[in-house]
Design brief:
With about 230 residues, the chain is an alpha/beta fold. It has a single domain, classed as P-loop containing nucleotide triphosphate hydrolases (Rossmann fold, 3-Layer(aba) Sandwich), CATH 3.40.50.300. Helix content is about 45%, strand content about 15%. The strands form 2 sheets. Strands 2-6-1-7-8 form a 5-stranded parallel beta sheet, with helices on both faces. It has a 3-stranded antiparallel beta sheet with strand order 3-4-5, covered by helices on one side. Helix 1 packs across helix 9, helix 2 crosses helix 4 and helix 7 packs across helix 8. The longest helix is centred in the C-terminal third of the chain and has 17 residues. Bound molecules: 2'-deoxycytidine-5'-monophosphate. 2'-deoxycytidine-5'-monophosphate binds next to helix 2, helix 4 and helix 8.
Amino acid sequence: MENGAARTAPAVIVAIDGPSGTGKSSTSKAVAAQLGLSYLDTGAQYRAITWWMVSNGIDIDDASAIAAAAGKPDIVSGTDPTAPSITVDGTDVAGPIRTQEVTSKVSAVSAVPEVRARITELQRSIAAGAENGIVVEGRDIGTTVLPDADLKIFLTASPEARAARRSGELKGVDVHATREALLKRDAADSSRKTSPLAKADDAVEVDTSDLTLQQVIECVVTLVEEKRAGK
Ligand code: DC
């Protein structure tokens, strides 16, 4: 070892993109925890800024009002995969950002270029500060936020599998209604002009429809380990 430096695994940046219901969050957290990496949920940041807009009476249909307010909330994301956290102006919003109201409005807010510029800058500075490496999950991480990520994964699953998982999480919610809501949000997230949901050309696509969560985690851990080993 040169200069007596400790031999540690090199910091690795992993981008995990894909629509909701593909197991993205559960996989990203578990992979980060297993490999000792930091973790960033970028969807939570878009949800947090949406929550702030709603709480402050900003008209969600008024893109210029959203753009004008985009710089105001102070959003802080914790990066411990075993205890993810998010605050807005010091208030813990981990619960409020998961309400139906925020979920139905987040696509409109996250389509505004000023919102994306603000949140992208935040994401890049968090990734740059993660000394041991980081798993960043979202929709545009491999394409826009961290195009030089060491490893890019794009998770997919059939609409049926995704709706079944989501309605299982949101107990008592009808699978058909969940499927329609997911497809509507996908269409909005994929068709927006600024950094839409998209697979990077160099991303590894993993279809999780017929895999258990444990199998997806093992698959991604193997891909990260191979990358670290220089394969
Ligand atoms: O992953 P999620 O469902 O919590 O994300 C909520 C919304 O945030 C999603 O509908 C689109 C938006 N989003 C985005 O535009 N870009 C990201 N990198 C992450 C999420």
